[in-house]
């Protein structure tokens, strides 16, 4: 189809950041790609610093606000229930996001470049509609829908089912603060003072890693059971410089990336990486892909195990905003089954008297408390985390107070974004 003739006037050039943001959002929409990976790909690295920042702000902003943007766009359409061409919808979201959330972008740039994006990305027939909707938006900003009037914009930007379960588990006030946290860049250092000896690591991840490192006073052998990309392995290696450390992951690609980073750091070069599926029992010879040397590295028992299980990631929506568009409530039970299998098999490798820290970046009880319940008994008990937490290195005084509120009824730790100044993590300490 030919693009309709543009009215005479200056040709419209799409700014590199808007073009890059559009392309990344298209890939996130059409594949399982992660925005964070795409934002660090060579195509974005090649942009100027200002364009990189704008690309990031546009991509993360649209993904964070997408549900609320769509709710504002629909009533402005001539036929609100009509299917929109994906490129037209994306152009509308980008334009609407800039008009609603970016003070410094002139409305004419947001509108005209969105129209041009639709026109040049396979939806020339929708260019007029994109123009009309965005112009209408600037004239008559959408009022909140009557049924949603009691909700904040941040709450509207979350899937209903997720918000409802947070309200049920944490109460309306905490759920509201949690939703607000998800809509902005997470704080750089809310719990810990920066430690230049450590790799770049967000505070929630560091909390889990420091807790794991402190869970055993002097481990000789440490197993990091779900290790890649390796941020927590690095903290373990630095806190226990004399321990033998084996870091396992089932993803060859993630493990290779981790290995190349670890090799250049003196503190982590000694970490042994092993490609294996930790959801399988150690007797299964197929659980180690790397061969005899890897099997030997994994053999025997470990004094300290970190089991940082793959999870839904609902504690990290500020950092990984697309999770909310992909996750379905029914996925939680599938996650929990895999987590329970990984934990069960990791525990078979725990030495008597050894400690295992199970962690996720999920806020959902099915992936946390319920998984721990499956592992208790038969010589495995849950230890209270309070004492370990009280002695973690680098925590500020306000962080100590805030983390007291993060202790669960069973004595484990759950940070809730908005209550603690970090992403949401769960960590439980088990002992054999
Ligand atoms: C939450 S991420 C780990 C993050 C890591 N601990 C860190 O701090 O950088 C979970 C990891 O578990 C890995 N994984 C998933 N299933 C696994 C399995 N069955 N066995 C081992 N690793 C697995 C994933 O590839 C992913 O790298």
From TrEMBL:
The keyword S-adenosyl-L-methionine applies. Keywords: Methyltransferase, RNA-binding, S-adenosyl-L-methionine, Transferase. CDD domains: AdoMet_MTases (cd02440). S-adenosyl-L-methionine binds at residues 226-232, 249, 277, 308. The active site is at 361 (nucleophile). The keyword S-adenosyl-L-methionine applies. Residues 132-432 form the SAM-dependent MTase RsmB/NOP-type domain. Coiled coil: none annotated. PANTHER family: NOL1_NOP2_SUN FAMILY PROTEIN _ ANTITERMINATION NUSB DOMAIN-CONTAINING PROTEIN (PTHR22807:SF61), NOP2 YEAST -RELATED NOL1/NOP2/FMU SUN DOMAIN-CONTAINING (PTHR22807). Belongs to the class I-like SAM-binding methyltransferase superfamily. RsmB/NOP family. This is Transcription antitermination factor NusB.
């Amino acid at each position: 189809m030919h693009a309709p003739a543009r009215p005479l006037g200056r040709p419209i050039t799409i700014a590199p950041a808007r073009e890059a943001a559009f392309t990344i959002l298209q890939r996130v929409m059409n594949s399982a790609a992660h925005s964070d990976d795409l934002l660090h790909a060579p195509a974005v690295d090649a942009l100027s610093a200002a364009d990189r920042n704008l690309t990031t702000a546009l991509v993360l902003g649209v993904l964070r606000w997408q549900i609320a943007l769509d709710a504002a766009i629909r009533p402005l359409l001539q036929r609100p229930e009509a299917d929109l061409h994906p490129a037209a919808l994306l152009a509308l979201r980008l334009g609407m996001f800039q008009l609603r959330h970016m003070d410094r972008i002139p409305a004419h740039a947001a509108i005209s470049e969105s129209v041009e994006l639709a026109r040049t990305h396979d939806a020339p027939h929708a260019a007029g509609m994109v123009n009309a909707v965005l112009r209408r938006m600037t004239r008559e900003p959408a009022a909140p829908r009557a049924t949603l009037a009691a909700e904040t914009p941040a709450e509207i930007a979350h899937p209903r089912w997720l918000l409802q379960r947070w309200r049920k588990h944490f109460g309306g006030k905490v759920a509201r603060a949690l939703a607000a946290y998800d809509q902005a860049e997470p704080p750089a250092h809310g719990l810990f003072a920066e430690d230049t000896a450590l790799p770049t690591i967000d505070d929630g991840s560091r909390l889990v890693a420091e807790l794991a490192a402190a869970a055993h006073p002097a481990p000789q052998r440490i197993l990091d059971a779900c290790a890649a990309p390796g941020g927590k392995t690095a903290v373990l290696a630095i806190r226990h410089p004399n321990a033998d450390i084996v870091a396992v992951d089932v993803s060859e690609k993630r493990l290779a990336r981790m290995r190349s980073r670890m090799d250049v750091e003196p503190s982590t070069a000694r970490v042994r990486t092993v490609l294996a599926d930790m959801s399988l029992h150690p007797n299964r010879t197929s659980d180690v892909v790397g061969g005899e040397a890897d099997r030997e590295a994994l053999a025997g028992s470990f004094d300290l195990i970190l089991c940082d299980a793959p999870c839904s990631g609902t504690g990290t929506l500020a950092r990984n905003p697309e999770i909310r568009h992909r996750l379905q409530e029914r996925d939680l039970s599938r996650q929990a089954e895999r987590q329970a299998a990984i934990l069960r098999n990791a525990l078979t490798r725990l030495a008597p008297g050894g400690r295992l820290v199970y962690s996720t970046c999920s806020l959902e009880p099915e992936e946390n408390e319920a998984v721990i319940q499956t592992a208790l008994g038969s010589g495995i008990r849950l230890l209270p985390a309070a004492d370990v937490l009280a002695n973690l290195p680098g925590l500020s005084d306000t962080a100590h107070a805030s983390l007291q509120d993060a202790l669960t009824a069973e004595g484990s730790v759950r940070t809730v974004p908005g209550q603690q100044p970090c992403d949401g993590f769960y960590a439980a300490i088990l002992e054999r």
